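TASK: fixed-backbone design
INPUT:
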């Protein structure tokens, strides 16, 4: 099984195809938003009855990353502490995800990775099943171009939008990640 997995599809499709597997493996999805101050950190949990509320957080300027975890949290509020998903007791039960923002011009790839090299068997089975499920989406293609490079073993639904890599979360950028990336490859027409 691959430790990293990349796919470029709309975020709502991504979670639509993930939902049944999340229920099957008792996995929850969390989205993390970080403001300029530590007290501004927010974690929201995916609710299959209201996926739009969860997905809108990906377009929040403070969106940072998302997680899949099968750790049995007693209280969801305990997740709000910074670095919770990386602690030794929770990391083996967790996958980290980055990217997924889509605009009129671009679609940011989604990157998934295991946090621990030796994950819990349940999260490992979920991750394998999720990869198989996503690779079998009707119309999915294996490989795509970012800038001047073609990447194999990365999956995407065809789009007229430019596919860009997932955001490295640099707080030092003065512009949006999309404009920063487009300017760096010389394709921004603004």
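OUTPUT:
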């Amino acid at each position: 099984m691959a430790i990293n997995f990349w796919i470029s599809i709309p975020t709502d499709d991504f979670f639509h195809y993930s939902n049944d597997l999340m229920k099957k493996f008792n996995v929850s999805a969390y989205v993390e938003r970080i403001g300029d101050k530590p007290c501004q950190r927010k974690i929201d949990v995916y609710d299959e009855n209201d996926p739009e509320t969860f997905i809108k957080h990906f377009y929040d300027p403070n969106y940072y990353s998302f997680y899949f975890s099968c750790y049995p949290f007693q209280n969801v509020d305990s997740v709000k502490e910074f670095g919770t998903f990386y602690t030794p007791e929770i990391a083996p039960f967790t996958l980290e995800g980055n990217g997924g923002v889509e605009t009129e011009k671009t679609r940011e790839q989604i990157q998934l990775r295991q946090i621990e090299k030796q994950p819990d068997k349940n999260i490992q089975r979920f991750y394998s099943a999720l990869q198989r499920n996503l690779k079998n989406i009707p119309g999915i293609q294996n490989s795509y171009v970012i800038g001047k490079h073609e990447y194999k073993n990365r999956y995407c639904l065809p789009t007229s939008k430019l596919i860009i890599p997932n955001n490295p979360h640099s707080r030092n950028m003065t512009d949006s990640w999309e404009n920063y990336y487009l300017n760096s490859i010389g394709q921004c027409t603004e």
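COMMENT: The longest helix spans residues 121-135.
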